[in-house]
Each structure stands twice: as structure tokens, then as C-alpha cells.
Amino acid sequence: MASNPEQYDSALLGILQNEGKVAPFIDVVLGFLYRRTDFFRIMKKDTDKLGFPPGVALKLLENIFKKYENLAAQDYKRTEEMKNLREKMTESASKESTDAEPKVKVITDTEKTPKESKSNEERSKDEPVEKRMKEMHMETPADSQVKESTSQDKQNTESSKDKGDNDDDETEDPEQTRLRRELQANPLTYNGAERESYYWSQTITEVDLRVKVPKHIGKGKQVKVELKKKHISVQIQETDNSWRDVVNNDISWEINTEESMWTLNPGEFVHINLEKKQERWWEHVFVDEPKINTRKIDCSRPMTDLDDEAQAKIEEMMYNQRQKQLGLPQSHELKTHEMLRKAWDAEGSPFKGQPFDPSKFNVDTSGIVNFDN
């Protein structure tokens, strides 16, 4: 495999854009192997120097296909594990918050010692009622009125805040809610919208714009696409060979034109993948388009969008979570185990001559080793 798997992307992308679909693209690649190589030539005699033994070429294709099929499955598995980990961390944080609430023990009169009861009875004869109530941390009638007033003000404030936060939900009618959910469920309009001449969807880093084309548009040469930092134009060739603008408009935010690309789905749409110059959620693609409510979209980020360091940290967290559930050492413990294994039988070690036994110690999250007595 090439050291840089993306070095041929530009050439292959040009072929894919011209063919429009994946099946013809694969046909072009295999056709090249048929015409210019001995890939499809079968070795029938031991003396043959060109080609492959029967079935070997097909097996080679199957192995390459399985390689990328496994990579896709691993990507999906990591995404699902990350999703489950986030849910578990949220539940754990919620539980810890609940457990952290202070517990107050209420002592009843029956639990008081005779001495305390007697002392209280004697004081009650001489001290004013309000003074005794305050010393016992009880509310006087005046305190109760002040507290009720303060509590009511606090409830009114929180109620107003909640009402403001949920205002959008209350004002959205059931039909709008249904349409929004349909858009979110459709990959063509995920986190985006459907317009008269196009669909669009987005992640935090990319926008996928699909411009609708007539049935007779079947080749890349029937389409002209121009991508600028803040402008997109798409033209199609009519049956009379004239050219018509389908899209010709300014976009709301800048894009990286070098990393943006397009392909044709014949008779359906021109698929334009736009790389955002700035990571942010777009409210619309074109400046004169109605805005969507970005508070109601899925703002989670796929794991593949993160840098290598962040992905490695997340994978370590997921690994530790699985190890913890299975009662096995976590990553920081394994590193310490390896260091101790090397020093276990070293000169001067109290365990010299004994087999390495991890049950004699434990490792906390900061890496500190505690030996059991």
C-alpha cells in the first residue's frame, strides 16, 4: 500500500466526477487492469510467466474489500462505544451529584437524654418563646413570612427562566415539530433543510449540498460547477445544448475551496461537499435562504472529526471502562505492572526469588502503588 493513501485522490476524484456513480468508476479501474496489465490473465501452465493462478486474482480483490469493510466496521464500533461512554459518564455524574447532597439527621424529643430534656424544660419557663425557637433553629412567625416571600420570589424567577429556555418548544406547533423530525431522520437534510432546488445537511466541519438536476443529466460534462470562498454556481446543459443556472448565489460562510469537491448522481443531483473554513453550525447555506434553528439540531461530533490525540484519549477511556467492568487492570495499572515486573526480582527487592504477584499491591488512578500488608 502507498505510504500516503490520499496522494492519488485528485486523479481518482476526476474519474469519479466524470462517471458520476461508484459502479462505473469501479468498472473503469478494472477495465484498466484488463487492458494494461496481466491481472485477468490466468496461468494455465507452470511455464506461464504472466497472470495469476485460477481464483487468485478474485481472492486478492476479496481480501482488499474485507480490509476496508473491517475498517468501516471499526469506525462504526468506535462511534457507538463513544456514544455509550458519554451516556454512562452523564449518568455517573448525575448519580455523584445526588450522592453528594448533605444528609441531616433530625433528633426527636424521644432521642434526647434526660439531662437535655430537663435543661430545656427549665429554660422554657424563663426564656421568651422566640429566643428559644431561634436557638433550636426553628422559624419564628416573622421569619416564616420572610422565608415564604423569598421562596415565592425565587420560584417566580426560576419559572421565568424555564419559560424563556423552553419558549421555542412551546411556540413550535405540532406540524413544525413533525417536519423538523422528518428532516433530521433524512440523511439528505440532516441538520439542514430541503429547498426548492436543493437539499443540504451538515456536520461541525462540512456541508453537503445536493443540487437537483433533470433526468437527462447523466454525464459530468453536462454540468458546470464553480466553487469560490463565498459563492457557488451550478449550471446544467439543457436538451437544446443551452446552459441554465440552477444555483448561483453567495453562501453564508467561507469554505476551503481546495478541499471541497463535487460528484454527479445522474438524473438526481449534483453532490457538492464543502469544507467549512471555520468550525461552526450554519443556519443556512445561501444568504437569502430562510434560517434553521441551530438549537434544535444534533450538535454531537463524530469521533472521526477529532484529532489523533483526542481520539487516542477517548479510546483509552473506553478501554479502561471495559477493563473496569470486567474487573481487569486498566491502562495506567498495566504500565505500572510492567515496571514492577522488571523490578520484582531485581537485586535488593524484598520480593526477590518470588513469582510476580499483582495481588500484593494496588495502583490508584494517579499511578501511586500501595502494597498490602
UniProtKB/TrEMBL annotation:
Question: Which stretches make up the CS domain?
Answer: 193-286
What GO terms in the biological process aspect are recorded for it?
A: protein folding
Which GO cellular component does the record give, naming just one?
cytoplasm
Give UniProt keywords alphabetically.
Phosphoprotein
Q: Which domain of life is it from?
A: Eukaryota
Q: Does the keyword Phosphoprotein apply?
A: yes
Which terms in the Gene Ontology molecular function aspect does this entry carry? unfolded protein binding
What are the Basic and acidic residues biased-composition ranges? 84-140, 155-164
Q: Does the keyword Phosphoprotein apply?
A: yes
Query: Disordered: where is this region?
Result: 84-190
The protein depicted here goes by the name NudC domain-containing protein 3-like
